Amino acid sequence: METMILTFIILLILVAGMAIGVMMGRKPISGSCGGMSALGMDVACDICKGDPEVCETEQQKAIKAEQKAASLGYDASK
Q1: How many structural domains compose the chain?
Q2: Which domain range does residue 54 map to?
Q3: What's residue 43's pLDDT?
Q4: Within a domain: 46
Q5: Is the CB of residue 17 less than 8 Å from the CB of residue 10?
Q6: CB of 32 closer than 8 Å to CB of 18
Q7: Do residues 47 and 54 touch, judged by C-beta distance below 8 A?
Q8: pLDDT value at position 13?
Q9: Is residue 65 part of a domain?
Q10: pLDDT score of 53
Q11: What is the pLDDT of residues 24-71, one digit of tens each?
Q12: How far apart are CA 49 and CA 45, in angstroms?
């Protein structure tokens, strides 16, 4: 029984720590292409190899794939 109580207390401490981390509002992780140029670092990432048009086309492909996936179903909660 003591082990269960100790485990529960440790889990509560971990959850509280994660909640404090979220409340602190640290900056989210940025994408490699846009993030590097936003920082003023003109570095080629593995995806675009220094060509910003490749990043734009990859983003458009991702948006189209997301829209296609959304059109495959319907909202049954309404």
Answers
A1: 1
A2: 31-70
A3: 60
A4: yes
A5: no
A6: no
A7: yes
A8: 95
A9: yes
A10: 76
A11: 876 655 555 555 556 665 566 666 666 767 777 878 888 888 888 777
A12: 5
**Residue 48 in contact with residue 55, Cβ under 8 Å?**
yes
Does any domain span residue 6? no
Region of residue 74 (phi > 0: left; psi between -120 and 50: alpha; otherwise: beta): beta
- Domain for residue 49, yes or no? yes
Would you say 33 and 39 are in contact if contact means Cβ atoms under 8 Å apart? Answer: no
Task: Assign residue 4 a region (left: φ > 0; alpha: ψ between -120 and 50; beta: otherwise).
Answer: alpha
pTM of the prediction?
A: 0.35
Query: Which residue is listed with tokens 């675009």?
Result: 48
Burial 20-39 (b: 16+ CB within 10 A, else e): eeeeeeeeeeeeebeebbee
Per-residue confidence band for 14, with pLDDT thresholds at 50, 70 and 90:
very high
Rounded to an integer, what distance in angstroms lies between the CA atom of residue 27 and that of residue 17? Answer: 17
**Residue type (1 letter), 40:** G
pLDDT at 12 > cutoff 80: yes
